Fold:
Amino acid sequence: MPKCFYKMTIPCVFKRRHYTLSALVFLMIFFFITGCGYSSKSLLRSNVRSIYVPIFDNDTFRRGYEFDLTRAVRDQLLLRTNLRIVDKDEADSILFGKISSVNENVLIEDRKDNIVESRVTIRADIRWVDTRTGRAIVERKNIKGTTEFIVLRNETLTSSSNESFVKLAQSIVESMEEDWW
Structure:
């Protein structure tokens, strides 16, 4: 047996094992992704292609919040779905919404009872209706968006509320998706 036989077989065996291991890892990832229900299709109803979003109702004393939330919901629908936002007469569906509560909770106060950190929680109810049948597609209550703000960072109730509107709008759009399990 030549002296170099030992040195020649190890890299070949190593390469074969490396390719086998790479193929095994690739197959595991492939089956994991396809086997876990991953899909690139939208989770929204396929028969609904357009939506009308009227100004949300507001059952709170915080005036103007209904306009900000409606704008945030429309932005999230455009950003995260394939739905077209259209006028009421052209829409396949209508998303009705209502702000049910706005709560501000103090989390931390300093020794002089000044607010250091606070939390804003905005809750809403939605009803998504198919205009062709008049039946509700989705009806959800008590969807919330919560944001904390720190006064020492010059964060305010207004800036925190705007962030809460975005989080609430994201939750609203997520609640419009079909259950896939």
